[in-house]
């Protein structure tokens, strides 16, 4: 009995005048109706605004390297490491050896072996030719041996 009285109370609280029926909306043949989120100039799914800072527009390669070295030095978890790697490799350039060194040390610090291997795969994808890749491998060889990071070519020799 109590549940039916609650239902009656709930239905009485709803006022039919507050609803707008589709037949009551004004229709115009020359005008397309926009969704409410767009009509009031708000995003439909997110309430955060897009932030575009212009501080990296005219950044030199040295400033880029210094910025990402600093970011990789402050990495404390795998998510942060992978986010920084995605941001670093998104640019139309190959990161410097110093940036890759900081990234490899960060991967070791958060104990993420797969990401360390993927760093070398990213370098291989970004360089223009095999010679450049070999130069990066030569420059990072001592660190790679120290950290125990294998290359994909070493892990899966039959896939080449």
Automatic annotation (TrEMBL):
Keywords: Coiled coil, Heme, Iron, Membrane, Metal-binding, Mitochondrion, Mitochondrion inner membrane, Transit peptide. One of its GO terms (biological process) is mitochondrial electron transport, cytochrome c to oxygen. It is a peripheral membrane protein. GO terms for cellular component: mitochondrial inner membrane; respiratory chain complex IV. The keyword Mitochondrion applies. Belongs to the cytochrome c oxidase subunit 5A family. This is Cytochrome c oxidase subunit 6, mitochondrial. It comes from Aspergillus chevalieri (Eurotium chevalieri). The lineage of its organism: Eukaryota, Fungi, Dikarya, Ascomycota, Pezizomycotina. The gene is COX6.
């Amino acid at each position: 009995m109590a549940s039916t009285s609650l239902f009656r109370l709930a239905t009485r609280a709803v006022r039919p005048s507050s609803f707008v029926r589709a037949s009551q909306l004004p229709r115009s043949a020359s005008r397309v109706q926009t969704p409410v989120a767009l009509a009031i100039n708000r995003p439909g799914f997110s309430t955060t605004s897009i932030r575009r800072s212009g501080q990296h527009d005219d950044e030199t390669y040295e400033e880029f390297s210094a910025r990402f070295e600093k970011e990789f030095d402050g990495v404390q978890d795998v998510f942060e490491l992978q986010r920084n790697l995605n941001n670093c490799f998104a640019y139309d350039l190959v990161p410097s050896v110093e940036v890759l060194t900081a990234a490899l040390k960060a991967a070791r610090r958060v104990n993420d072996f797969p990401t360390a291997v993927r760093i070398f795969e990213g370098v291989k994808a970004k360089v223009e030719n095999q010679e450049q890749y070999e130069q990066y491998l030569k420059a990072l060889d001592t660190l790679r041996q120290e950290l125990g990071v294998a290359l994909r070519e070493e892990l899966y020799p039959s896939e080449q």
